[in-house]
Specification:
Layout lengths: L6 E2 L5 H11 L3 E6 L2 E7 H4 L14 H7 L1 H12 L3 H4 L6 E3 L4 H11 L3 E6 L2 E7 H14 L9 H13 L11 E4 L2 E4 L2 E2 L2 H12 L6 E4 L2 E2 H7 L1
Parallel strand pairs: 1-2, 4-5, 8-10, 9-11
Antiparallel strand pairs: 2-3, 5-6, 7-8
Length: 226
């Protein structure tokens, strides 16, 4: 995570937030009061503003009648107010210090969020953005051991077969995997193009594999030939 979190207070103005976003080249800034996260002001909160002519268009009397006074008034406040607390988004994705990284990735995906805030004892201690996960990926890949230049064929085949058995998607069986001089040959059939590609990736990522020859056919064709 990144820490400390760049933030403004609840009494800050829209001008202060905009200046901070531009100066720091940020997409969002947290709104924090005595360590407690109140919300965020992001680019998404600022794209519909009266000053630049992007506020929601005025509704017809018919839509005003049935659209709801509360929602229409809220739209006006969001697009016209200069107070941070009127513009900010209050529903913010948060995690704890002990949240596993796979759960954070899932939360970003489900919430379609760019970032999550890390909370410890109700206080904001950090932020994790999508870019942080990319940096983690780069760091891990750089630390991976160099590919093994040679392994015996039996060991390579055993690892591939074991890996296939641990997954839920393969149609390929143990007898359909052969390895000769580090070249993997796949036989039999597959149910989907996604399955075919996944099994190729699995084989290619196995240490010692020099190449993969795919001789499989779609299972609907295989059944038709029987």
């Amino acid at each position: 995570m990144s820490s400390p979190v760049v933030a403004v207070g609840p009494d800050s103005t829209l001008d202060e937030v905009c200046d901070l976003l531009v100066a720091r080249d940020m997409s969002a800034v947290a709104v924090i009061d005595q360590g407690v996260l109140l919300g965020i002001v992001s680019e998404e909160d600022l794209i519909h503003r009266a000053e630049i002519g992007t506020a929601a268009p005025r509704r017809t009397w018919w839509s005003r009648l049935f659209g709801g006074n509360t929602a229409l008034a809220a739209e006006y406040v969001k697009s016209h107010s200069v107070h941070v607390t009127d513009v900010m988004t209050r529903q913010v994705a948060t995690v704890s210090l002990g949240t596993p990284i796979d759960e954070i990735a899932a939360l970003l995906d489900v919430r379609q969020a760019r970032r999550v805030f890390v909370i410890n004892s109700e206080r904001v201690v950090g932020i994790i953005a999508r870019a942080d996960l990319v940096r983690a990926l780069v760091s891990v890949r750089k630390s991976l051991p160099r590919p093994v230049s040679f392994r015996d064929d039996a060991s390579i085949r055993k690892e591939i077969v074991g890996a296939l058995r641990s997954e839920a998607w393969p149609s390929i069986g143990e007898a359909d995997v052969m390895v000769t001089n580090g070249v993997v040959a796949l036989w039999g059939g597959y149910l989907s193009e996604q399955e075919r590609k996944a099994s190729l990736v699995l084989a290619e990522n196995t240490a010692g594999v020099r190449a993969v020859d795919d001789h499989r056919v779609p299972l609907d064709i295989a059944y038709a030939m029987v």
